[in-house]
């Protein structure tokens, strides 16, 4: 005898079985009345209402988008893209997708319902080989942070919106980048940032726990790779620029920092691509010693706007998206 059944997978990986249930015929979703730690994968109803407050409007025609990352719990993408979908009237939902093996993921999630993806750590380089086509800029950088399933033929097309989102603002009326000729120290293998710094005339030095990855990236941008252990002792000159593109300092490990406070005295500008929390320990200590600091929030906004345009094939509500981020993050 066949009996109607609603199945729910538990754990962080099972969260999408809750959020996408209405699309596939479930007449209800479940949530906890308190702390989600009581049962992982079962978030508080208050959280579901805040992020997915029109979940009752999800139907069989809803297109699915999500962030493919590991870890993924820190991502603020759902807080931004879901309100933007509602603002524009686009029938889409954006969900967190905890993925260990991105190639296996795309083999399983191959239907047209899954229309687009943000690609996060550590999958941006591997994602290149998962795409049927790759935009020339993403190919040049060697990393993809956005994948769109083309409606006409179902092919996966890879893009990189990180590259243009990385910029250091200056109030000087000059076409010369403020980082031109500067020694630019990059922590982590942030390919888009490394290429962006190089294109603006900086001298790039890369520190990464995986030294082979650091060397490969350094070669690609005509830079230099040095052992991660020597980072705090690297002080060849003053007035350097530091950018953290690693996960050090990201929630929940907010007490961590990639560079000691004493070593920060050699830098005049410190940028942290981490945006959760908005004001990391690295930025706090850099400000205390008098360096100019920059948060990853602006970079997140810019790359997300670029992604939203690719997801919907149209314009993004830029002012609205910026307001959402600045109010909620």
Structural features, described:
InterPro entries: Aldolase_TIM, Aminoacid_DH-like_N_sf, DHquinase_I, NAD(P)-bd_dom_sf, SDH_C, Shikimate_DH-bd_N, Shikimate_DH_fam, Shikm_DH/Glu-tRNA_Rdtase. Pfam families: DHquinase_I, SDH_C, Shikimate_DH, Shikimate_dh_N. There is one protein chain. The protein has 329 residues and is an alpha/beta fold. The chain folds into three domains: 1-60, no CATH class; 62-160 and 296-329, Rossmann fold (3-Layer(aba) Sandwich), CATH 3.40.50.10860; 172-290, NAD(P)-binding Rossmann-like Domain (Rossmann fold). The chain contains eleven helices and twelve strands. The strands form two sheets. It has a six-stranded mixed sheet. The chain is globular and about 75 Å long.
Explain briefly what this protein structure is.
By secondary structure, the chain is of the alpha/beta class.
Please outline the helices and strands.
Layout: H1 15-19, H2 45-51, E1 63-69, H3 77-88, E2 92-98, H4 102-108, E3 114-119, E4 133-134, H5 136-141, E5 146-149, E6 156-159, H6 162-165, E7 183-187, H7 191-199, E8 203-208, H8 211-220, E9 224-227, E10 240-244, E11 267-272, H9 281-288, E12 292-295, H10 296-312, H11 318-328
Parallel strand pairs: 1-2, 1-3, 4-6, 7-8, 7-10, 8-9, 10-11, 11-12
Antiparallel strand pairs: 3-5, 5-6
Helix pairs in contact: 3-11
